[in-house]
Write a structure and sequence with these properties.
The complex is a heterodimer of chains A (114) and B (113). With 114 residues, chain A is mainly beta. Chain A has no helices and eleven strands. In chain B, 38% of the residues are buried. Classes of the chains: A mainly beta (114), B mainly beta (113).
């Protein structure tokens, strides 16, 4: 089954403790992206990657890192999490980076930073 | 800058009512337009899309027409069901932006039996 898999689905942690949210897709998609969803703000893009070893900042990259060493994986790293990063996070992928390709989303990761 | 504005929710309707959720956009260039749906506890799923002016996207009884003259992409359905209760997001994607996608803030729809 074609899917985007995120882990963990839920995480409660404390300020400053490094964490990684993994994202993996099995569709051989070139383009992958991370979003955060906050009430009243819709989805805002954190980082995106057009292909292996190619990443770029989205609208809200501060406090986050990403890497794309393999085509299928695109982990999101919070080196020193803070409470304002408490949010619902989604990973997404699409066939390529042309504008008419729809995104395929994971089921989300709810992070709570205390 | 580029943006998407959609009507605020929540929207509450009775089953079999007609649905319209308004969406307008601002973009430099010629975006592709999308509607995504998010059911509780799940990620977003593509509902429909349109890639050029006057295109009509349709799926599961939902329709939206890409109107360049009014920069709009309103979502409509003739007869809603309880199972349509979800959050709906309008989005645009610009080729010139290396596929950066911009989402509206979402509209929560609740359908009463």
């Amino acid at each position: 089954e074609a899917q985007v898999t995120q882990n963990p689905r839920y995480l409660i942690t404390v300020t400053g403790k490094k964490l990684t949210v993994t994202c993996s897709q099995n569709m051989n998609h070139e383009y992958m992206s991370w979003y955060r969803q906050d009430p009243g703000l819709g989805l805002r893009q954190i980082y995106y990657s057009m292909n292996v070893e190619v990443t770029d900042k989205g609208d809200v990259p501060e406090g986050y890192k990403v890497s794309r060493k393999e085509k299928r994986n695109f982990p999101l790293i919070l080196e020193s999490p803070s409470p304002n990063q408490t949010s619902l996070y989604f990973c997404a992928s699409s066939l390529d980076w042309t504008s008419n390709q729809p995104q395929h989303f994971g089921d989300g990761t709810r992070l709570s930073i205390l | 800058g580029d943006s998407v504005t959609q009507m605020e929710g929540p929207v509450t309707l009775s089953e079999e009512a007609f649905l319209t959720i308004n969406c307008t956009y601002t973009a430099t260039g010629y975006p592709s337009l999308f509607w995504y749906v998010q059911y509780p506890g799940e990620g977003l799923q593509l509902l429909l899309k349109a890639t050029k002016a006057d295109d009509k996207g349709s799926n599961k009884g939902f329709e939206a027409t890409y109107r360049k003259e009014t920069t709009s992409f309103h979502l409509e359905k003739g007869s809603v069901q309880v199972s349509d209760s979800a959050v709906y997001f309008c989005a645009l994607s610009l080729y010139s932006s290396a596929s950066k996608i911009i989402f509206g803030s979402g509209t929560r729809l609740s359908i009463r039996p």
